[in-house]
Amino acid sequence: MTTIRRKDRLAGLPSGRRGKYAMLVFWLVLVAVAGPLALKLTEVQDNDALGALPATAETSRAVQRAQEAFPDSQKPLAVAVYVREAGLTATDRAKVDADRAVFSRYADGGQVSPPMPSDDGQALLLSFPVAGDAGQRADAVADIKKRLAGDVPGGLRTALTGPAGGEDDVFDAFAGMDTTLLLATAGTVALLLLVTYRSPVLWLIPLVTVALANQLASAVVYLLAEHAGLAVDFQSQSILTVLVFGVGVDYALLLIARYREELRRHVDRHAAMAVALRRSIGAIGASAATVALGLLCLLAAQLPSTRGLGPVGAVGIVAALLAMTTLLPAVLVLFGRWLFWPFVPRYSPDAVGVDVAAEHGVWRRIAGFVGGRPRAVWLGTAAVLVALSFGMLNLSIGMPHDESFTKEVGSVTGQRMIEAHYPSGSASPAEILAAAGQAGQVVAAARTVPGVAEVGEPEPSADGRWVRVAVVLADTPDSDAALDTVERLRAAVHAVPGAQALVGGDTAYLIDEQRTVSRDNWTVAPLVLAVVLFILVVLLRALVAPLLLLASVVLSYAAALGAAGLILDAMGYPNLFVGIPLQTFLFLVALGVDYTIFLSTRAREETARLGHRRGVLHALTVTGGVITSAGVVLAATFGALNVLPLVPSVQTAVIIGVGVLLDTFLVRSLLVPALALHVGRRTWWPSTLARPVFRPVAAPPAERVPAAS
Q1: pLDDT at residue 231 above 50?
Q2: Which helix (DSSP H) or strand (DSSP E) does residue 80 occupy?
Q3: Which Gene3D superfamilies match (predicted)?
Q4: Which of these, 7, 8, 6, lies nearest to 705 by C-alpha position?
Q5: Least CB-packed of 370, 663, 690, 697 within 10 Å?
Q6: 689 has which bridge partners?
Q7: Which region among 65-79, 280-294, 326-340, 543-557 has the lowest average model confidence (pLDDT)?
């Protein structure tokens, strides 16, 4: 009784006659404070975290040693490449010399090394570190690109590549993308809400509410980044926007659907909202807790970009929950029933005891189909999902740099030009850092490694303690052959006594990244499953049902990855970025279980009233429409990530979009209810609902409450 009274009081706050005004004032103050802070979120982005590795990784230790031993040369390398297939001319060489003189003003140390010719006489390279901080480098690279493209002799091709060129291409690609993503997400949600409600007004309410939730979430993330050291990058900010809009609108759809039911049973809209909020807040709260705690499991990851996504996303979920359970109810009751025009739900005394399932013709027929042959339905659905999962064979883990963008960029073009005329590793050599006393032995060991094309002369540090040795690989830096070469190189130089050798560079980075991601997958994924299982057990007060639901979402994830594999392979993007499997697993398990939470909580409620079989089918009937709408909205919202010009964003959009749709139309609509019917009342074991002596408690589908104050 105490819990019920507490829920009644909470439901009465935003739905009360006076409470709604207090809630609106509270949100006006909150938004007035949060708005200016939200605009500053981009100022605290640290996109270096996107490429960072744990401090314990060998690449990170090599970078740290290089920064200490060679503090004046730790700047990203710009590589200008000039190619004429018929052979370079004197005019071409004059262009290179003139560019070299200009580039010296941007080079760290003020000098650019002489151009390096290719063996075939068709190409020249200028390589130099770019001086300055991030802002100064961006301006410098823009000038370098302009100079490189200017006064080019006919037939000569030029491009800028290397880390500096790649860094600039990323910034160019994402220029203005935060606004574009926000507009695409809001536009998608607005269109789907308009179609869902078929009302010229109602769709605006959840859209505006979720936009304010996004402002609140952005403001909180900004404060945490500014004052608590929270790492925020472009990826996490993009996911924040999509999460808040997608999940927030899902919660709105669930609440508004329940509110519409209660408006037909209550003459007072305040009382209708109080009942609707009390009956739906449990499922909404459990859903939010599942997703938020699942996201916080990412704190156990070692990869900084993955770990930072957790708290950022969790803040978004909490903001969406707060807005949809406080602000949205207050606005809905403030404006009244006319918001639903032209389909206004009118109060009818006859509706008090009427079964609302009668209004859901399509889903009543689907429930009848599931209830007719539950075993055949769940076995058939499971077979379809298993068959789809074989599409994963089209996917591979590991994305080459030249496949990272959805459009051609200069750094990729330059890399391909280099590969055609130089040893493939010329633009991204491996780097050995070792004790100066063993430099000769280290160099000798490196030269014996198969796959090494060239070993440079040792460069001593200013204090004479360390040397740095550049090692050019024979293969493309991100190829499997290059990865194997660096593994052999590490083994060879580590074996030199007293050398304390470390091997860094782009290829070494890929090796350490793969190891880190593999460790994170085996750590975080089981943790997410354990958290989801715990929440389901507490929510449903059962053990069998949570295990069945958890198995269903894992199967759904495998099917989503397989179906997405077919799509991505057709799109030409079958090589997944290494962090994609874990991130999409988290979202699909946490978000996918949302819909089963909405269904199973209603099923438990109806089972107590109607018995197991009738309760499950009734829950499927009355929740089918709203949960399907919520799934379509969430899938389309994640689809907005397709506007970003990076292949990992497209891969995320496809996998999550397909997964949510599979979960909505197959898992939640067919597999879960059919499986629950086949297992029978044991689904609710060990709760009282599973006991043979249990008898349903007859009760009207609506509760009558006095008008909220």
Answers
A1: yes
A2: strand 77-83
A3: Multidrug efflux transporter AcrB transmembrane domain
A4: 8
A5: 697
A6: none
A7: 65-79
| Residue in this structure with the two tokens 């750094």, named with its chain if needed | 411
pLDDT tens by residue, 147-192: 988 888 989 999 998 888 877 777 776 666 667 777 777 787 788 7
Residues in the chain: 709
The enclosing H or E element of 587 equals helix 580-610
Residues 6+ positions from 252 with CB-CB distance below 8 Å: 205, 206, 209, 210, 324, 328
pLDDT at 674: 93
Question: Is 83 strand, coil or helix?
Answer: strand
Domains of the chain and any CATH numbers: 1-42+201-344 (1.20.1640.10), 76-173 (3.30.70), 364-401+517-690 (1.20.1640.10)
Query: Among 202, 201, 196, 336, which Cα is nearest to 263's?
Result: 336
Closest CA to 408 of 647, 654, 648: 647
CA pair distance 684, 687, nearest whole angstrom: 6
- Per DSSP, what are the bridge partners of residue 134? none
Both structure tokens of 288 = 């939010």
What value does the mean pLDDT of the chain take?
85
At 136, the pLDDT band (50, 70, 90 cuts) reads confident
Q: Provide Rg for the chain, Cα atoms.
A: 30
Look at residue 703 in the predicted model and tell me its pLDDT: 47
